[in-house]
């Protein structure tokens, strides 16, 4: 954990965990490099999770910043191309970091119907599966099949480890190919401009 502190006179900085002052131990160590105050926890135990605060104080005042340290998986990053090479399926690929091995993944997706005058979204469809890897930094994929050709979709992903579910990924918009690949690719830019507001508004 890193806390950057600025002040004149130079502030005194103290770490707190769940309201109790952090004391250096074999697992907890602190270091200060210029304005950066670093708290290192190694190895991490379940009892380490919770709220950590860095409190800086000098004769002119006091400042506090709190961060929640959790064992849940980190933020998901969907890295697959938005353009499918198939007419009826799409290979969704994402990366995630986790404090413990992943136990479950959840993929939700829906179709977006767009024309010149309006846009309409379909119902979310959901599937869950056990990840094939126990790595803590993982690149995972899932083949979404049974899709309509020449269509626009959105997908979101969550993963779970022993400490709980990650937050939902940002919505990822993707496109399936049509029978006339060239014609569909020429229309993708038009579809993207029509669906831009929807992409940013879905939570």
List the helices and strands and how they pair.
Elements (H helix, E strand, L loop, with lengths): L1 E3 L7 E6 L2 E2 L6 E6 L2 E6 L8 E9 L2 E9 L7 E2 L10 E9 L6 E11 L4 E3 L3 E5 L7 E9 L6 E10 L2 E2 L6 E4 L5 H21 L2
Antiparallel strand pairs: 1-5, 2-3, 2-6, 4-5, 6-7, 8-9, 9-13, 10-11, 10-12, 10-14, 14-15, 14-16
What does this entry look like structurally?
The chain has 203 residues and is mostly beta strands. The chain has two domains: 2-69, Sandwich (Immunoglobulin-like), CATH 2.60.40; 77-176, Sandwich (Immunoglobulin-like), CATH 2.60.40.10. It is 10% helix and 47% strand. It contains one helix and 16 strands. Strands 10, 11, 12, 14, 15 and 16 form a six-stranded antiparallel beta sheet that branches. It has a four-stranded antiparallel beta sheet with strand order 3-2-6-7, with no helix packed on it. A hairpin with a 2-residue loop joins β2 (12-17) and β3. Residues 189-203 have low confidence and may be disordered.
């Amino acid at each position: 954990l890193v806390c950057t502190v600025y002040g004149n006179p130079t502030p005194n900085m103290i770490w707190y965990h769940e309201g109790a002052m952090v004391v250096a131990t074999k697992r907890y160590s602190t270091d200060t490099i210029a304005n950066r105050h670093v708290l290192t926890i190694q190895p991490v135990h379940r009892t380490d999770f919770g709220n950590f605060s860095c409190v800086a104080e000098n004769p002119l005042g006091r400042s506090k910043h709190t961060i929640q340290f959790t064992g849940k998986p980190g933020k998901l990053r969907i890295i697959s191309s938005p353009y499918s090479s198939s007419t009826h399926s799409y290979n969704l690929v994402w990366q995630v970091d986790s404090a413990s091995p992943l136990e479950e993944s959840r993929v939700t997706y829906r179709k977006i119907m767009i024309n010149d005058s309006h846009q309409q979204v379909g119902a979310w469809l959901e599937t869950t599966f056990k990840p094939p890897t126990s790595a803590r930094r993982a690149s995972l994929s899932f083949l979404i099949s049974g899709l309509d050709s020449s269509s626009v979709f959105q997908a979101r992903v969550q993963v779970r480890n022993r400490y709980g579910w990650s937050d939902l990924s940002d919505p990822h918009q993707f496109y399936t190919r049509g029978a006339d690949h060239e014609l569909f690719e020429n229309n993708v830019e038009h579809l993207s401009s029509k669906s831009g507001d929807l992409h940013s508004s879905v939570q």
